[in-house]
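Hi there, hope your week has been kind to you so far. Do you reckon you could talk me through the fold, stretch by stretch? Thanks so much in advance, here it is.
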Amino acid sequence: MLRGPGGLPRSGASETTRPSRAEAEEAVRTLLRWAGDDPAREGLLGTPDRVVRSYEEFFAGYGTDPVELLQRTFEETDGYDEMVVLRDIRVESYCEHHMVPIIGKAHVAYLPKHRVVGISKLARLVEAYAKRLQIQEKMTAQIANTLDQVLQPEGVAVVIEAQHQCMTTRGVHKTGVTMVTSRMLGAFRTDPSTRREFLTMIGNPSSRGE
């Protein structure tokens, strides 16, 4: 079985197609030489190892099954059927086009039907998709769709606000720009009052001038 960062199972390719750690480190040396530096100089000797270990953290999401994260739920809620919202979840991801950081926060909400999930699982769900090469639009949809698929609630809402270093440190070099994406399912899509309540609870990012 193919193993992702950290030695966890990962699907999508055969074991023979994944480079070895030594090959990954050599690829870093190649990039250092291409950038114009000498990977053999003292300050860079340990860089390939450090970069590979960093990648194990940056892309740990490939070794996580998001559906499995949500499997343990609780049905003893005494009939609780109001909105569950987790705001300001730190998002650290990497743009799949330039491999530079996407940094921001996610807001996740659902309207339970029969069961609820531990709040830490909502944060872990966000991280499972963030710790991959991503575009923000897809990540937003993945989080919402998975929560909807597993919990089957009355509705799901996800909003992500993030800054993309692919446009702040390169290209157009526009700083202070925040991209906002949302995915509304079920009651959050069909009931304007439910959607308004959620947006009010998270501070209505679409109306902020930040």
